[in-house]
Amino acid sequence: MRSRFAMLIGAAALVLSAGSAAAYEAYTPTPAPLRVSPSVKSALITTILPNTPFNVMGCRRWCQVQYGGGVGYVDASYVVPGDPDDLGPGPQGLLAEPLETYGTVLGADRYGYATPGY
Known about the structure:
Blueprint: H1 2-21, E1 24-27, E2 32-35, E3 44-48, E4 54-59, E5 62-67, E6 70-75, E7 80-81, H2 91-96
Antiparallel strand pairs: 1-4, 1-7, 2-3, 4-5, 5-6
């Protein structure tokens, strides 16, 4: 009896350790509702703020996540794996920065005056 109990405890520990190893960090680029269960009809716990990292414990159509000290579910379409701070330069950064044209106007000559026919 004791050996069965010890084997059961060992198997449970193995399953739990494998489950925690599968967790990964993610974020949402837009506000995302965190719900009690994986359904749009379930109660809303809170809203996950954009670009705030959280842990994903499992994901299919809905992701089970740890956020703000609690556990809930968020629609998988909101979830982006990784750390939002690791985005680095790219299209998001380029589009966020205003472009400097140094006074150049389309259809203008080299002195900045509008030219006819442009």
